[in-house]
Amino acid sequence: MKDADYILFEDYLSGNLSHEELKAFELRLKADPEFSHAFELYKETSGFLENKYKNEDELISFKGNLKNISENYFNKNNSSNNRSLWWKVAAAACILLFVGLYFFQQFSRPGYQEFANYQAISLTERGAENELLFKAEEAFNAGKYQEAEKYFEEILEDDDNNHELKLYRAISLIETENYLKAEEILDEISNSTSVYQYEAVWYKALSRLKQEKYQESAEILKTIPKEEAKYAEARKLLDRLE
């Protein structure tokens, strides 16, 4: 039994074995019950991790780090050939546990992009002659938020009570990481009786999420009432944060 057999398990599951190595591996599975049992244990653990890390890049990163750690561990303990198989499997399981816990903590946090799903906005009617509104709409829908924010700012100079446009300006500011100004606008809307009052609260929570201020984001989300349209989304995000 090799010291780093579970690395061989991973190579098998990943399809990285040569034809000869694959044949030898499968023969060993049939001939060596302990080896076969250890492989089944590893396969189950690997399946668990794949369910935890849905993002392929995260899983690849996890496995790469695991492989490096395991190689270092077993190289340092090369003289322990007389140890039993269960001890090796236990050591491998410990590495999986601790490294897995670290990566789970790193990647289980919700991401801003998961929840910042902005619908295309429509500010102008066909034939309407408002060039600035058209440009703002076009820039926002194209994801050109810095450009869109400038247009919204200019439009609002003559339409300061338009909370819808203020909301879109705040979103543009969040996207360009101008959080202070964005939240100043959102606070103004949320402290009003506007129909956009709780949408502003939602986007302020997203602003804090993007800044990785998870606890602050959670506290803001708790202020959205059940009857509001954003409540279901807020609850979903809150469940991920807590």
UniProtKB/TrEMBL annotation:
<keyword id="KW-0812">Transmembrane</keyword>
<dbReference type="Pfam" id="PF14559">
    <property type="entry name" value="TPR_19"/>
</dbReference>
<keyword id="KW-1133">Transmembrane helix</keyword>
<keyword id="KW-0472">Membrane</keyword>
<dbReference type="InterPro" id="IPR011990">
    <property type="entry name" value="TPR-like_helical_dom_sf"/>
</dbReference>
<feature type="transmembrane region" description="Helical">
    <location>
        <begin position="85"/>
        <end position="104"/>
    </location>
</feature>
<protein>
    <submittedName>
        <fullName>Tetratricopeptide repeat protein</fullName>
    </submittedName>
</protein>
